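BUG: 3D viewer hangs when loading the predicted structure for this chain

Environment: internal workstation, default settings.
Expected: structure renders.
Actual: progress bar stalls at 90%.

Input used:
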Amino acid sequence: MDKLKLKPEQLYNRCDPSLLSFETTEELSPIRGIIGQERAKKSMTFGLGVTKKGYNIYVSGQWGTGRNSFVNMLTEEQAIKRPAPSDWLYVNNFKDTYHPIAIRVENGQGKNIIKQIERAIRFLRRGIMEIFSSRDYENAKQKLIEAYNEQSNTIVDRLNEIGKKYGFMFSLTEKGIVSIPLKEGKPMNEEDYHNISQKDYEVLMSNSQKLSLETIDLFNKLRMEEENLRNQLKSLDEQMVRHLVKFHLEGIKEKNKNNEEIRRYIDMLEDDIVENLEFFKEEEDEEEDENNPLAIFAANKNPETFFERYRINLFVDNSEVKHAPVIFESNPTYYNLAGSIEYQNEMGVMKTDFTMIKPGALHLANGGYLILLAKDILSNPYSWKSLKRSLLDEAVTIDSRASFAGALVSQTIRPEPIPTDVKVIIIGDYYTYSVLNAYDEEFQKLFKVMVDFDEEMERNRENIDQFSRFVSTKCQMEGLSHFTAEAVALLVEHATRLSDDQSKLTAHLKTIGDIIIEADAWSNYYKENFVTKEHVQKALDERRIRANKYEENTLSLYKEGVYLMDVDGFKIGEINGLAVVGAGQYSFGKPSKITVSTYQGRQGIINIEREARTSGKIHDKGVMILTGFLGRMFAQDKPLALTASIVFEQLYSGVDGDSASSTELYALLSDLSGVPINQAIAVTGSVNQRGIIQPIGGVNEKIEGYYNVCKIKGLNSEQGVMIPIQNVKNLMLSEEIVDAVRKGTFHIWAISSVDEGLEILTGRRPGKRTSTGSFEKGTIYHLVDERLKLLARDSRPTKKETGASDKTPRAPKKTID
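Structure tokens produced before the viewer hung:
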């Protein structure tokens, strides 16, 4: 079967340095962006261009493929084309202080508006105080008071006239008008009142009631005069001040004539100032007594505390932002995402107001783009719910979810939600995307654009040129020595190895970037001006050495004979299988001896790994396929009556995958036929029920793992590995193995069917059915068929087991055409 042997040039796809258009990467211009990923670029560009609701983006890709820098680059390019976002203010709601008002202003105007209003308040405080200290104001006020006094004195005189009839007089005090009983025409003192007789007391009370009834209208008139005075004084204050307030605030309204929200707030501000003029009349209080523990509770009476209501919270300041913002939030907690409300401790009581509202990433990204990592946002369930709610409502609501242990929260606020226009980009892996898409209906509505990153790219001239420019860019950015063409060619070959495809390059450029840095380190160690092929190879070798301790320990066990492994000779029912073992980010091939025992019974094929619970579901499926193959090939004219046990010898850590199913089938057919298998050949490959060989993964690691064991035990020019023909395109073997194949000391066969594999392993033809329905005599399938017939005959139940008599007629034999 030499025709199935692979040639050395099939084992490795070389990159010819002479085809590269440079001698060193110093000659190349830097590359901006990412290599390949054309599908991702188109999807991302589309997603960034759609402004409708729900067209947020999920970027799916493996770590190290450059997805983060890719997203940042394309998003920044799109953001530059969009205008800078507005500033946002939170102001006091004078009608309901627990619901602060949000105001949108033009980009960069937030600071100016705050300065304008602060300046106006300063001038008003000084100007209003001057008005209330002016002679004109005092004269006008005095006239009103004098008019009131005249009216009130007239009423009091009338009250005294009536009071004399009942033995009372009325007197004006600080607390108002009080009635005083008379004795002999003079006000009764306290002693007289206590010495009054019971009869006189009853008369006094009766007269008091009569007096109250007769003077009720006069007292009502007096109260009306008092109310009228208060209204007149208030009206006087407003008349004196309103013009000044308008003078200072109308200019702000005019400057913001196109902003209805600001104009409405200025109107509210004007009304509130006029409504609270008493605070403008008072002089600034002297420093409070620090030793008075109750001073804090008088804060609301302090004019300085009162004037906090006129402050403005510059909630989002975009004055330094020149285009649409691009915000990457690496820690998307609820508060970092949706904003927060801070609290202040006043004597153990937590208080807050509109000046303590702080923005989150959604506010900062408003009018632009917010980038999040899926693992970060999903690890904060409140954040995920808040994000979805904000995108659905197109507004961000700031909730106060804080709890203060041991403290009393006396007040909280509910700020007005801020409308949002933000495109959210979540970066994660495909598994997370599939789970969210399947189980989260809101995710389906909100993230309609999926950007899928490829893990590899075509190995064509264009991508190799871009790959070379990537190396050059990395050197320039990191301050590294430049690479020769031969060094870049080796990097291209290694990128092909990482992609597991001779026609591809890996898209995991983070790994390539690490190798570039390490190769530069070896170049510096050897004091070279450029990084050569030898430096790159040294970096690759050292990376392997740093990670292959477990592999070396495993090889030593083969060398010492702890792991039993025959690499020459022929044995029945035994074969060398291949598996891949992972140790962190490093994986290697590990050969294992597979043995099969067949005997009489009806249990079928027993997977010992499954019975021991060390087998995975896919491996169990692969073993079951063997029964289907045997049944199709040999049980059309008889029952399949056998018991066969299959086991990976000395494998204690578990096994999964179906890549050994063909290997197990060869050992099974060997044991049934009695034909020995060449132990020099290891096998990997999946098989289906019709005997077709199917591709597997990790083919390079498996071949190299077996080669290393053969090298330890001694190469004899007979050893090799048999692989599926579909895996030829995945081969990127080490230079040592390619040389061994070239010299004929090691071999690799690529097969497409079980028949081809059997002939290579045994040196005998598998056999075909003749016109009589039986297999060609002397072939493997003929021997298997004969053995199965024998097992089927010997496994028939006896008369005693079935309860049948000697006279029970036998069923006629069926003839198979």
